Amino acid sequence: MAKEVKRNIKILLVEDEEADARLIREKLESYGPVDFSLTVEQDLNSAIERIKAEDCDLVLLDLQLPDTWGLDTLDKLHSRFPELAIVVLTGMNDEELGFHAVQNGAQDYLVKDNTDELLLGRSVMYAIERHKLLQQIDKNRRRDNEDRDRSFRSLENMAGNPRSSVTASSFGLNTIRESDPVTYEYLIKQYSELLDLAVERRQYRVEHDLTDRLRAFAGKLGFHGASPREIVEIGTRALRHKWGSSSPATINASVDESKVVLLELMGHLASYYRGFATGLNRWFE
Prior knowledge:
The protein has 285 residues and is an alpha/beta fold. 65% of the residues lie in helices and 12% in strands. The protein has helices at residues 18-30, 44-53, 71-80, 95-103, 117-159, 166-170, 176-179, 181-204, 210-223, 228-242, 248-284, and strands at 7-14, 34-41, 58-62, 64-65, 68-69, 85-90, 108-111. It has a five-stranded parallel β-sheet with strand order 2-1-3-6-7, sandwiched between helices. Strands 4-5 form a two-stranded antiparallel ribbon. α5 runs parallel beside α11 (248-284), α8 runs antiparallel to α9 and α9 crosses α11.
């Protein structure tokens, strides 16, 4: 039977008290499931240089060091190396400080004199895994934001410049936003409501008479002389309004559904204008 190979974890301990550092080393060596490779530095500047020179999986950080003190110690290290998991070490009377450290980026805090080898080992392992998970969540969030930004830019490029040309303006053919700002904002609100229905239908399989609603909305847009470019701009502005009040998942679903809604609106608007042109032709016959 093959011998099981233990996982090796590289730890940097930043601790200026030699007795405390020796005790932590002994406790880590007594923790069975994992082999820990421990390096010790006695001040923050030396620790920073060590991290630059060597990889490590986690930092055990005493907040009271010769060259820095309190939460400032954590802030300096975490801001330089946000990719590193950090567990803060505190004294008996510093539990509140440890709690605030977790709020400021540490994965955990341990009271030195109340920590045995089992608690220390588990805290280190959990901190590493928890930090990896948080990093993956943050990476996914950034990727979602980038995807959303690309989608917005795509819609905005479709909208182009919504301002009327000089020639169009001279004939009184201003955009809705220019000629009737109140109606323009109302149309954005209505588009947003229709988009909510489309997202609800997608996420929860709720049936709405969305096609009829979109056809009626296209009629309003046609009545006000909206161009396809203006419709895209209205849709984009409606999405922008949702940016700060919806979850990333809902925003991404809204962006996807907005493309479908815009295409359907374009079709209904084209039908509206065809019907309008046919009526004019008959009137002039």
